[in-house]
Write a structure and sequence with these properties.
This protein is an alpha/beta fold. It contains 15 helices and 17 strands. 39% of the residues lie in helices and 15% in strands. A hairpin with a 2-residue loop joins strand 3 and strand 4. The site of pyridoxal-5'-phosphate has 14 residues, from helix 5.
Length: 462
């Protein structure tokens, strides 16, 4: 991990004035410092550490502050605004609900709730017969955990084990962190769930995983079964997979996932994908799992599901979704009318405006451009991962040492040149523009990114 804290000392930066980017002040903006400092004083420290920009307005692929600066956004606020910032269809839908007015209903239903659920279930694959609406992604992964266990326990009282993967991440609440890999993030819990197991991830740089992905999975699962003395049919109930590994947009080999799905079938396990970052068009398909040609039992979604307000959800078959008794799985803000209206307008925009197709077609060019950049800086970039309008550029030196400090500098230089990228604090920079982006904007963003890499390498190594 890098140790960077973005500086709050305003610095002269080059003037930028293009069609899509304006940088016309020092950065951070001097007038923004008292605001930033007060937020830092009044809000938990754990929310901070990101780039010192105060957003005033955001539309399409552009983000504006109130001092004349304009950025091209390649972050989608970390995979949220898939249908574009300030999508007019979402705003119009929200205005209608506000003007009624109808702000909250919780245990009562509303036309917005009916319309959203109806559209959602009608426009997702047929095995998804019911949804459970929530507010945060971590609630959706927790709910999936509960559903997998309820289903297992129904079959047999000891069938509660969940298989998860090395390097995956599922949110910040207790169950989500138990399913996630990062051991340091679990220290606060004080114990580990003895029924949650982690399998090795088939990274592209793990030779045996790439050579024979099916065998790699079977060897890993056999070892886990032996080591823990379990019978998968009797002791396991589900498998939780992040559709791709978030920090580096790392996908599993297709055959690996197909073998996982086969193993799930053989042993009556539910297969869940955490689609938080992968869902709703990001990878050029409606859902990222579709690249693997498998049929999951449960899907946990969030972020791009609304492109705006707090909405997350779980999708699944009726008999699984109805396992919790009436009232035993609920959330106060779930199915809020505003959030449902946003979710509906977002999903319709994704389909009606051809954004999934845009992600697929422009995604191809995006990856060609990024691979050209990788070839130019091959001593510093080891690989470009991802598909569609999702990419992670992984920075490693020629001895495969990660270069997180280089990533920090590149991210900062991008910001100073009018481009927002996803700063991970690791050896990766993630790029994920809103799916409404056009060719000209995409090329300008890639060129700005390339220049920032060139200048950062020059500054650190030459
Ligand atoms: C893969 C994945 N799962 C779960 C979550 C948790 O979502 P939320 O932050 O909405 O709780 C995230 C958030 O970054 C995520 O990327």
């Amino acid at each position: 991990m890098s140790s960077l804290k973005f500086s709050h000392i305003p610095k002269e930066v080059k003037l930028v004035q293009t069609k899509y980017r304006n940088i016309v002040t020092k950065l951070p903006v001097p007038e923004s410092i008292p605001i930033l400092e007060r937020v830092y004083e009044t809000e938990s420290h754990s929310m901070h550490g990101q780039m010192p920009i105060i957003w005033d307005r955001a539309e399409g692929v552009q983000v504006y502050d109130s001092w004349g600066n304009k950025w091209l956004d390649f972050s989608s606020t970390i995979f949220v605004t898939n249908t574009g910032h300030g999508n007019i269809k979402i705003i119009e839908a929200l205005k209608k609900v506000l003007e009624k007015p109808l702000l909250h209903t919780y245990t009562f239903t509303s036309p917005e709730r009916y319309e959203y659920l109806n559209y959602l279930i009608s426009n997702t694959p047929k095995q998804f017969e019911k949804a459970f609406l929530l507010s945060a992604g971590t609630e959706a992964t927790e709910a999936s955990l509960k559903l997998m266990r309820l289903n297992g326990l129904k079959l047999n009282k000891r069938k509660g084990g969940i298989l998860c993967f090395e390097g995956n991440w599922h949110g910040r609440t207790l169950g989500a962190q138990m399913m996630g890999w990062n051991p340091s993030q679990k220290e606060w819990i004080g114990y580990l769930d003895p029924n949650i197991y982690h399998l090795p991830f088939p990274y592209p740089w793990r030779e045996e995983a790439i050579k024979d992905p099916r065998n790699f999975f079977r060897n890993c699962i056999d070892e886990l079964i032996k080591k823990n003395n379990i019978d998968p049919k009797k002791d396991l109930c589900g498998i939780m997979m992040e559709t791709f590994q978030g920090w580096g947009a790392v996908f599993y080999p297709k055959e690996f996932v197909q073998e996982v799905a086969l193993f799930a079938k053989e042993n009556d396990l539910l297969l869940t994908f955490d689609e938080m970052q992968a869902g709703f068009g990001r990878t050029g398909k409606l859902f990222g799992y579709m690249h693997y040609e498998v049929e999951p039992d449960l899907l946990a979604c969030g972020k791009g599901v609304s492109s705006s307000l707090p909405l997350a959800l779980v999708l699944g078959r009726k008999e699984i979704m109805d396992l919790p008794g009436i009232g035993s799985m609920s959330s106060t803000h779930s199915a809020n009318p505003l959030v449902c209206a946003a979710g509906l307008a977002n999903f319709k925009s994704l389909i009606d405006d051809g954004l999934i197709e845009n992600s697929e077609s422009l995604g191809k060019l995006f990856h060609i451009k990024l691979n050209e950049i990788k070839n130019r800086f091959s001593n510093y970039i080891s690989t470009v991962q991802g598909v569609g309008l999702l990419a992670a550029v992984i920075f490693k030196d020629q001895n495969s040492n990660p270069l997180p400090d280089l990533c920090d500098l590149i991210s900062e230089k991008c910001m100073q040149s009018g481009l927002l990228v996803v700063h991970t604090g690791r050896e990766s920079i993630k790029l994920a523009p809103p799916l409404v982006i056009n060719l000209e904007q995409l090329i300008e963003g890639c060129e700005t990114f390339e220049k920032a890499i060139e200048e950062s390498i020059e500054q650190i190594y030459k």
